[in-house]
Amino acid sequence: MKIENFELKIEKPQNLDNENYVYLAGEEIKGKINIYNREKTRIVRLSLRTVGSVYTGWQYANAEYESKENILDIYNDLTGNLSNYCDETMELNCGEYNFEFSVKIPMNAISSYYEEGYGNVKYSIVATLDIVEDCGESEIVSESEFLVRSFLSLDSPHFLNPAYSTEEIVTDRVCLCFGNSKEKRKITIKSPSLGLLPGETSNLILIAEQTARKPNKNSQIKWVKLSICQQVDFVACRKDTPNTWDKRSVTRAIQNYNNSNINCQILSESEQQIQFQIPKNLPPTSAKENDLINFSYFFRIEIEQNLDIILPIVIGSFRTIL
Fold first, then answer.
1. Which one, 144, 154, 307, 322, has the greatest CB density within 10 A?
2. Are both 112 and 165 inside the same structural domain?
3. Is residue 161, in this structure, part of any structural domain at all?
């Protein structure tokens, strides 16, 4: 082949992990295309295509479910850039050539993701060089994948408001004088804001209130575990029945709070502050629920009486208001 090297490279910011660098929706991707030909080559076309796709699929019983959607397709014709180095017959002299390019990611791009057995969201830039050889036209392709995080601003007043969740716990209370009775408490977990950013620390508050009978100072329960959880919902269509859809959810605790150094007792009347760091590199909460893949988050505190308190939160990607 006359073309010895044809390579597309995405330029990542310096001093960062280039392999795992994540672009925010709305950002600009910059890169270079390198061409090295050993002999004079007739050029037909040089093109650049930025593509993104969502795939979901699994098998349940005897049915197969699968859905595909193209969510990004940006085409750029770079033949004019290359023609500056060609003669009037579009022949490119032997040598090395470098072409810079830039592509802006749409603001509505969704987050890259991969879950084995359920689905993925992938993005890539594909450079294609069409040339004329002795046997006819042929094309050379170079592709580079990149990662995207969706854009979700937390500047809305709704996301700045506190969020809380309350559950009532009923326990048996033994009294030698008056017999057994029921003791009720309200346990509340509170976040200073509904919207949180990956990597930041949230100052959670755990509140216990007596709601029945006089508080017993020695009465206490334990909370076992505090976690931030991620739920990813996948939607796919049945292959043999186009109007039949199925949904699968994967829920996992992505970070647990290390409570070994604090008092885990919840007294009858108490208020406890907990500093919980949000994990980094989380896909933001999905802005709409009709995508094939959707993300949501919540805090979960497990109480020793097999009771969970759930506090839904929103993970964003941007905030200007502190």
1. 154
2. no
3. yes
For residue 54, which of 114, 121, 123 has the smallest C-alpha distance? 121
Backbone angles phi, psi at 80, to 5 degrees: -60, -40
* Residue-level length of the chain: 322
Strands 195-196 and 307-315, sheet pairing: parallel
CATH of the domain at 285: 2.60.40.640
Within this chain, do residues 125 and 184 fall inside the same structural domain, yes or no?
no
Query: Which H or E run contains 149?
Result: strand 136-149
Residue 43: enclosing H or E segment and its boundaries? strand 41-60
Q: Which domain holds residue 85?
A: 3-149
Supply the pTM of this predicted model: 0.86
Number of domains in the chain: 2
Q: Is the dihedral angle over the CA atoms 40, 45, 50, 55 positive or is it negative?
A: negative
